[in-house]
Amino acid sequence: VQHERLHIKHRGHEAMHAEMVLILIATLVVAQIVLVQWKQRHHRSYNLVTLVQMWVVPLYFTIKLYWWRFLSMWGMFSVITSYIIFRATRKPLSCRTPRMVYKWFLLIYKLSYAVGVLGYLAIMFTMFGFNVFFRIKAEDSMDVGVIMLFYGLYYGVMGRDFAEICSDYMASTIGYYNKGGMPSRSLSGGICAVCGQRILVEVEEEGFIEDTFQLSCGHIFHEFCIRGWCIVGKKQTCPYCNEKVDLKRMMNNPWEKTHVLYGQLLDWLRYLVAWQPIIIGIVHGINFSLGLE
């Protein structure tokens, strides 16, 4: 009966509905072109606006819906990350700051990856009915899976964006990296161009805490530094000579290659969460201004 009432209500609106679909498609196409051009021409402002949206919008819904668990996690992440950003933007830059920054964001990246995978497995666990064998309610196991998946993806996106900002500030301060051309400082042998500190472990040796990594261009770096620079900080060039980095050669085993795919998923999620609601809101505003139901 309700379905029939819906048809009666919208009878004769077929042309109007077709017009609304065309408006939606046109808006999506135009928005995509604008966002791509903005990202290519003004990459820094695009990332900054997107990051602010990703950071503030969940806070609004958290306070409105009383999600205190997420608010506490968000607050702890924000406090520590704010301190990390503060240290990364100081001049002169402390010799310990770059490694501290990359270690923190590499930790966030790995934790978000692990939590996201566990959340996905929990969802699959529930969908295939395995929760029955452990006498777990489907609602409870599904809630846990969705929450863990959201936490992993959200903090993964936030960590990568903040890491990119810190990478730019620290690299410009240290002077071994210049995005537009030649670096302002000459790199001497045995120095890591990411953090500016001496490398104590040879490339062929196995380090106790971390190894030394050599890119195809011949420059060597601390393992934590170059992984944080390329995988987390989203820089796919050598920190000194700007030569293209082959991320696949940086992975020691096939399992680690999933980290690159995970990073690409986070980039797609950023567009979905930050910009899709705005685009849909614009579509509704156009429909309302034209009197379309």
TrEMBL record:
GO terms for molecular function: ubiquitin protein ligase activity; zinc ion binding. GO terms for biological process: ERAD pathway. Coiled coil: none annotated. It is found in: Membrane. Signal peptide: none annotated. Keywords: Membrane, Metal-binding, Transmembrane, Transmembrane helix, Zinc, Zinc-finger. It is a multi-pass membrane protein. Residues 192-242 form the RING-type domain. Pfam families: zf-RING_2 (PF13639). GO terms for cellular component: endoplasmic reticulum membrane; Golgi membrane. Its main location: membrane. InterPro entries: RNF121/RNF175 (IPR040176), Znf_RING (IPR001841), Znf_RING/FYVE/PHD (IPR013083). The keyword Acetylation does not apply. The chain crosses the membrane at residues 20-38, 67-86, 107-134. The keyword Metal-binding applies. PANTHER family: RING FINGER PROTEIN 175, RNF121 PROTEIN. This is RING-type domain-containing protein. It comes from Xiphophorus couchianus (Monterrey platyfish).
